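hey can u check if this looks right to u? its 247 residues, i copy pasted from the old doc so theres a chance i mangled smth
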Amino acid sequence: MRGLSSGSEFISGNGVYILKYVALIPARHGSKGIPGKNIKEIYGKPLIAWSIEQALACEEIQEVYVSTDSLAIKDVAIQYGAKVPFLRPDAIACDTASTESVVLHFIEWCEENSIAPENIVLMQCTSPIRHSDSLSKAIRQFEEEKADSLVTVTETHKFLWKTPGNPTASYDIFNRPRRQDIKSEDRLFFENGSFYITKLGVYKNHQNRLGGKISMFEMFLEESFEIDDPLDILINELMFSEMKKNK
């Protein structure tokens, strides 16, 4: 086990390692939009390396695991400091497999190997930009709010519509609000998918990353860009470049 703060890890009477926070990064081999996406170089590093290094830099996270079906991804993940103790079965490595099935498989592996993570930080490696303190701030908020799960969000000022056959707006079309006039309680946020924090019991009871008391952690716009197609790579590399200049 890597360096831990006092009291953050202990072995129970039956020989089980109890870890307060464990990061899990799913990284499947297949990608329709960008072949080899998860290890494609993004601003000088393989895409998955950004999430691994951010998790390793977070003091509250004791262990960082990658769940993958790819030997190539496994080699890169280990090179950057993550643990990859198994290869994901084909049944949960296909296009239709849910992320929850990957987490539940990881939980099963932990139980078989006498590891008990109290909270799982699920990180999407397709969201490489996170400020250096975002993970720690989210964990503090998770604890302060005594939450069972946490979702990362970003505020949006876009006017949203749904049901094209019977268009419905997210605002009063006869009283179009100005951005500065939007009340705090009327602010809109979108789920950016960067990471989630979930108590082990939520996964066991609901088989879902969100459940119980949910905390909403707000992130900056630049942290919300995901990589799904080639244009996203250009946007993320531009953001990395701008952040480096500003830093």
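The CA atoms of residues 227 and 233 lie 6 Å apart.
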